[in-house]
Specification:
Helices cover about 0% and strands about 50% of the residues. The protein has about 90 residues and is mainly beta. The chain has one domain (about 5-90). The radius of gyration is 12 Å and the shape is globular. The N and C termini lie close together (about 10 Å).
Length: about 90
């Protein structure tokens, strides 16, 4: 299991040493996800063909380090505003 908490305008995630997946599939707005660790951008995703129907919702997959803190930013693509749905899993 991993820990997640809302930290102002982003989410703080404590690594569990496993593969993790963050997804905004199902959101009502096109999204961009950015994952940062130790002030370094780990990965950015501007849309994913894995979302059904295909759209500009985002999916990030990363292998986390046990106990390491990650920061997940979510924003609307091209300045879009609206409701988003965020799911984080560790299969």
């Amino acid at each position: 299991m991993f820990g997640i908490r809302l930290c102002r305008r982003f989410f703080c995630i404590k690594g569990n040493g496993k593969k993790n997946i963050a997804s905004t599939c199902g959101s009502k707005v096109d999204t961009v996800l950015r994952l940062i660790s130790r002030n370094t951008c780990v990965i950015t995703n501007f849309g994913s063909p894995q979302c059904i129907p295909e759209d500009d919702r985002a999916i990030l997959e990363w292998n986390s380090n046990q106990g390491q803190e990650y920061i997940l930013f979510i924003r609307g693509s091209a300045g879009a505003k609206g409701d988003y749905e965020l799911t984080i899993t560790s299969p």
